[in-house]
Specification:
Layout: H1 8-14, E1 38-39, E2 43-49, H2 61-67, E3 71-76, E4 83-88, H3 104-121, E5 126-131, E6 139-141, H4 148-156, H5 166-176, E7 182-187, H6 196-204, E8 208-215, H7 217-220, E9 226-231, E10 238-243, H8 245-268, E11 272-277, H9 282-290, E12 297-299, E13 302-304
Parallel strand pairs: 4-5, 4-7, 7-8, 8-11
Antiparallel strand pairs: 1-3, 2-3, 5-6, 9-10, 12-13
Helix pairs in contact: 3-4, 5-6
Length: 307
């Protein structure tokens, strides 16, 4: 029997969390934020006068008996805006497994499963869309927590492969999913080409971005020194480097600048960013990812406050 992605004790703790977002999508409401629109639902909102063509089933007949006037009952609509989760399944996500650590992909799958479970508990629907050069097959999770089993089965059969291509992925995503919603992207955001521009495109088309960057500890702070042989996980291109303390420090600073550029893009477009090492516990990672302001992230397994 395969090892479960998430243990039962963590699932119980996840039931206290909620996926929030900032935007109000016209024609849709959601995020378990209070709706700004009225409609059929479960929470009473207000009355308005009855107009010809209104649904008679929504008339407050008790008020009519007292006032002899027709009033329509209005309700706060229950949130149901689309939640879509882009899961990076490119070969670079396999990093970490050869170093005796949890791989980025396994960590990302756990995050994906945990976020989906939180949504299912709140009766949200979450579409899981793996990607590498192109979009892969999807999994639609809906119907409550009892539908979580097929989600873990779907995630466990995925394997990281191929190269990242954020521009092509964004083009295909925008062609396939025309309606705006909350877009959660779990990735290392490693791509030979520009990543920020395709992410900006996704925001420009109305999607609220929730960027979750994951990395293995050695990807931010290389432990090796001296002459080092590296090989690109996606292209196989070899690279020979000579690393001293200054070079390792400069590399970490460059890594942090890249993470900052992702965070700035997310916040500038009204979204959120969280970034953390695979050395962080899944509990802490979920708290960082779902923190409403999205301005805290963890590096190397410890928290660094919002900048």
């Amino acid at each position: 029997m395969p090892t479960p992605l998430i243990d039962r004790q963590l699932l119980e703790r996840l039931e206290r969390l909620t996926i929030h977002w900032q935007k109000s999508f016209r024609g849709l409401v959601g995020g378990h934020n209070t709706s700004r629109f009225s409609g059929a639902g479960v929470e009473f909102y207000d009355h308005r006068r009855f107009h010809q063509g209104d649904d008679l089933r929504a008339v407050n007949w008790r008020a009519y008996l007292r006032l002899e006037k027709l009033f329509l009952k209005m309700f706060q609509a229950e949130p149901r805006a689309p939640i879509r989760l882009l899961l990076d399944a490119s070969a670079s996500m396999s990093a970490g497994a050869d170093e005796g650590e949890i791989s980025k992909f396994d960590f990302a799958r756990q995050l994906c499963a945990a976020l989906t479970y939180v949504g299912l508990v709140r009766h949200d629907s979450i579409l899981i869309q793996p990607f590498h050069e192109t979009l892969d097959e999807t999994c639609l999770a809906s119907g409550g927590r009892h539908r979580f089993g097929p989600v873990t089965d779907f995630l466990l059969q995925l394997q990281p492969r191929g190269q990242s291509n954020f521009m092509e992925t964004s083009r295909q995503f925008l062609a396939k999913y025309t309606g705006p919603g909350l877009l959660i992207v779990i990735s290392d955001f490693f791509d030979d080409a520009d990543v920020l521009r395709p992410l900006q495109y996704l925001s420009d088309f109305g999607h609220e971005l929730m960027l979750i960057q994951v990395w293995s500890p050695s990807e931010r702070e290389p432990a090796a020194g001296g002459d080092v042989h590296l090989e690109d996980a996606e292209s196989g291109t070899p690279l020979e480097l000579s690393l001293d303390a200054d070079a390792r420090r400069a590399y970490t600073e460059a890594f942090d600048r890249y993470a900052t550029s992702l965070e700035n893009l997310a916040l500038r477009t009204g979204g959120r960013y969280s970034g953390f090492s695979t050395g962080l516990t899944l509990d802490d990672a979920m708290l960082r990812a779902l923190e409403p302001t999205g301005q805290e992230y963890a590096r190397g397994g410890t928290t660094a406050g919002g900048r």
